[in-house]
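job 3f2a | input accepted
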Amino acid sequence: MDLSKNIREIREKLKIKQIEIAERLGIDPANYSRIEKKGNNINFELLQQIADVFKMSVVEIIEYPNGNTAGDEERVKALEGKIINLENDKIRFAELSDERKARLIFLEKLTSKIADCLEKGYAILSKIEKQSPEIQKEIQDFVRQYDRLEEQIKQIDKET
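job 3f2a | predicted structure (160 res):
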């Protein structure tokens, strides 16, 4: 089950552009794009908002396209676990001190800005990568650094 893939497929089926959904959700289009590409920053509340835009339930998005089928008990248990985890994340966030919430929100915004800058840089480099082997090597190094930074951000986020 790939939640980000399900969201993208539903959006495409409904013929809604990413920028339109981002506007409806009140988030940056680049952040929404990351949700569909990597499943980044999807919490229960955001998933519920996306479900509202699609006029679907959260469960329908998670189970898309097949829905519950007999004999698929493991998949249903995994989906239930994912929903419980999302709900638990929401509860844990609500229980944090205001200072800790502010730090997490700041970290999320900072992470988003860093990712936006890196994605823009990557897009520019991708356009010129075919010009020389040296540039191709630099782009590969850049992508590795980006991936390492993304992992570090995830680790910091978990620790916070």
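job 3f2a | The chain has two domains: 3-94, 98-159.
job 3f2a | closed
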